[in-house]
Amino acid sequence: MEKFIPQDFEIMDMHAHIFPHKISEKATLSIGKFYDINMHYSIGESERLLEAEAQIGTKRMLVCSVATTPKQVVSINDFIKEECDKHPEMIGFAAMHGDYEDIPGEVDRVIAMGFKGIKLHSDFQRTPLDSPKSYKIYEAIEGRLPVLVHMGDYRHDYSHPTMLLKVMRDFPKLKVLASHLGGFGAWDEAEAVLKSSENIRFDTSSAVCLMSPERAVRLIRHYGVDFCMFGTDFPMWDPKKEAELLLSLGFTYEEYRKMFSENAKAFLGL
Asked: Is residue 6, in this structure, part of any structural domain at all?
């Protein structure tokens, strides 16, 4: 088996979180408590992300944050926009919440600001993927922006893979990036019901590091290499370690080239 190092590839990280300085430590700690894990980085700021990604030569990174209340939507989006303006290597995905009072208006605004997608986290927001509140968001972005969705936490019933299957049937033009290989802790269910298609892709964040190599390969093969993208879930995990784990799975150079950047470019139209 040919061995590769991260520097052999152009790398795009398709799943990273950043927070404003004044709340970065608190927000990072809160995520760790929610998942009952020790976060690799204690502070999820842009500068720390850039330092971590520099270890593997990452060229571009998708950055986002989650609005846990409607009133956070605008301030988060303004923050993400400011960080992307300061750091052109960052690709911004906007926050949205199902209870926000003017979803179409904010979608218009973030498109004008240059955002490349929307980020939703049904478990943090306590809003099921297939709920009427979520559908209001899909209606506003279908055919306009892709959506990055948290998938499959076995402890909750907000983002089960079957819910995404229903969403994809009801919104056939919606482009979705399903995080964590389709099901954080619910990979059996994801493998049973989810398949790749023209409008759905999967990222490897918080997935490859939590399963056996054999299972990771099987799941990626199930979806298809052409539909999977590298992601780190920073600040939860270390980009260097995540890249090395993916590179240990024995895919070919061309397959890794696709997962590290080419699939992401195609998905985002870059």
From this structure: no
